[in-house]
Amino acid sequence: MKGNEALAEAAIQAGCDAYFGYPITPQSEVLEYLSLEMPKYGRIVLQAESEVASINMVYGAAGAGFRTMTSSSSPGFSLMQEGISYIAGAELPCLIVNVNRAGPGLGTIQPGQGDYFQSTKGGGHGDYRMIVLAPSSVQEMADFVFLGFDLADKYRNPVLILSDGAIGQMMEKVTFGKFKPNKVEKPWATAGKPDSRERNFITSLHIKPEEMEKHNFKLVEKYDLIRKDEVRFEEIDTEDAEYILVAYGLCARICHKAANLAREKGIKVGVLRPITLFPYPSKRLFELADKAKMMLTVELNSGQMVEDVMLAVNGKVPVEFYGRMGGMLPTPEEIVEKLENLIHKSHAV
Amino acid sequence: MRSEEHLLVEEQSISLKDSETSSKSEYIKNTSEEIATDKPRCLDDDYEVVYKRPKTLVDVSMHYCPGCAHSLVHKLIMEVVDEMGIQETTVGVAPVGCSVFAYDYMNIDMTEAAHGRATAVATGIKRLMPDKYVFTYQGDGDLAAIGIAETIHAINRGENFMIVFMNNAVYGMTSGQMAPTTLAGMKTTTSPLGRDTAFYGEPIRVSELISHLPGSFYVTRQAVNSATAVRKAKKAISNAFKYQKLRKGTCFVEIIGNCPSNWKMTPIEAAKFVDESMIKTFPLGDIKLPKGEDLKLLQEDK
């Protein structure tokens, strides 16, 4: 199955009640797949007039207590930032998917990771975080939909699946059935006020500064809890590694190959793949920095996640960066060559 | 049995007494005794209750200016919700603008939307709960400027909710800037010499515009600057709620609102301004009515 289709099928199986979307390459398959399949299950699928509208439809449906999602790609994801800020402020659970393409501006439809900052540091106005999941396979495109919905409900927070044009478009074997829809009661939803309770309202407005700050602190508390309990990452051959490649999504797959190549050459290389980009596996990187001589971050951008790696290791080891952009991908050989050069340079010093 | 009306009247008499009583503690003691004995103090049984606050309108003081149309229209909506007995099945969407706090006053489940996005939010709500009564409450900046795309597309899809469009020709909350509906020549803080239509175009007549969309089912323009106008506006809101049951399309109730503060007028001058100026650009009345089969359906429904 294609990555985007696997994600769409997973949405149905995870009990998504409503999907609102707008066409944009390279993620239109999600909208197309669901436009055909959702009505068969009596679910709602609606092609909105813009990403601005689709994210606000998600806001309405999530506020009414339903499991709902949208998907887009970079330029469309930018248009959603306002709505996401409101969703985060009003603490509504929902799933958002960004099949990252290269930019800035209209950019190109080829894969990119240039939306890392936007995805992990808030993105819209104000002070908020999304939980960000970064799949590196078609199987994970499907699995993270279940995980994403569950985390969203657990924390009443928007969850983002940050994929890219390659993972979205590539075809791989994918199996379903491991996860089940796990829906929870939402007594806070605006679904009509019975006599038995006070009225519910969904808002991100707290006009009094004392109340606004109180709400901000409440969010901070939630984000800290997420940082404590929800960090996910994958480690490959890090036990004896002198050099750690840090990469997520598509880049992590390429780095895995690069690490194998390097091992064949006798260089002890491991890979740390963050699965959650927020919360970030900072603690684990800090630990790994005790044994490693150097960390090399590989990204499809001009250097974004590398800042989080630097913050995590806090100067313990040198943190280097290698990036390709514009939809171009690094080859494993290229990464090994870059690593060898850096090692050589460090020895020279 | 002591009724809510008794309490209301008593509250008024309490405030009178408060000014007369020298000792505050004595006053509290007296009133609490009277409540305990369940004897209304100044209400003769012969009096007839002609008006009371709808029970779904929250009993708090509103932040609206004196003479503002919002409080009145909030009340009309809640009166209809009371009369139809649909508190449990109604969900409202508040906008950004003066009525951003609408959810503080309406005792129903409500969602506060981002600026201009109310109809998209309402789409999300209504599509998932087609049996609920859903409405948006939006101003002219919200609906006709930043949210015109969402408005037109929601209506074009024939979303089965009511849009209450409060048109007072200015941005109220941000204190009186020019709106898409600002009258030609009308002075605002951003059109200090009057709206120059050669530069900014003519005011948008949203009701006429959207009445051409097949998705709109009922389109009407009302005012609330006189007792007669208020009664008609309430009827329009009531119709729009009832038509939702037919699932035939969007019901659009435009209300020309008075905005004395930003028009720099007294409430009475503002009420006159609606008649003398506003309705020349925005004529009142029904613009699109259900007809034929649809009208029959509605009558059967009754």
Provide an overview of this structure:
The complex is a heterodimer of chains A (349) and B (302). Chain A is α/β, with parallel strands linked by helices. Chain A folds into 2 domains: 218 residues, Rossmann fold, CATH 3.40.50.970; 115 residues, Rossmann fold (3-Layer(aba) Sandwich). Chain A has 13 helices and 14 strands. In chain A, strands 1, 2, 3, 4, 5, 6, 7 and 12 form an 8-stranded mixed β-sheet that branches. In chain A, strands 9-11-10-13-14 form a 5-stranded mixed β-sheet, sandwiched between helices. The longest helix of chain A is centred in the middle third of the chain and has 21 residues. The relative contact order of chain A is 0.12. The mean pLDDT of chain A is 97. Chain B contains 13 helices and 9 strands. Chain B is globular and about 50 Å long. Chain B is α/β, with parallel strands linked by helices and 302 residues long. Chain B is 44% helix and 15% strand. In chain B, strands 2-1-3-4-8-7-9 form a 7-stranded mixed β-sheet, with helices on both faces. In chain B, strands 5-6 form a two-stranded antiparallel ribbon. The N terminus of chain B is likely disordered. Chain B folds into 2 domains: 52 residues, no CATH class; 233 residues, Rossmann fold (3-Layer(aba) Sandwich).
How can the largest sheet of chain B be summarized?
7 strands, mixed
Number of helices, counting only DSSP H or I runs of 4 residues or more of chain A: 13
What's the mean pLDDT score of chain A? 97
Low-confidence stretches of chain A: none
Beta-strand segment tally of chain A:
14
CATH superfamily of the largest domain in chain B: Thiamin diphosphate (ThDP)-binding fold, Pyr/PP domains
Helix content of chain B: 40-55%
**Biggest sheet record of chain A:** 8 strands, mixed
* CATH class placement of the largest domain in chain A: Alpha Beta
Structural class of chain B: alpha/beta
Question: For the largest interface in this structure, which chains are involved and how many residues does each contribute?
Answer: A-B, 40 and 33 residues
Domain count of chain B: 2
| CATH secondary-structure class of the largest domain in chain B | Alpha Beta
Domain count of chain A: the total is 2
Beta strand % of chain A: 15-25%
The dominant shape of chain A is: globular
CATH fold call of the largest domain in chain B = Rossmann fold
Q: What is the CA–CA distance across the termini of chain B? A: 34 Å
Give the number of helices of chain B: 13
User: What portion of residues of chain B belong to β-strands?
Assistant: 5-15%
Classify the secondary structure makeup of chain A into a structural class: alpha/beta
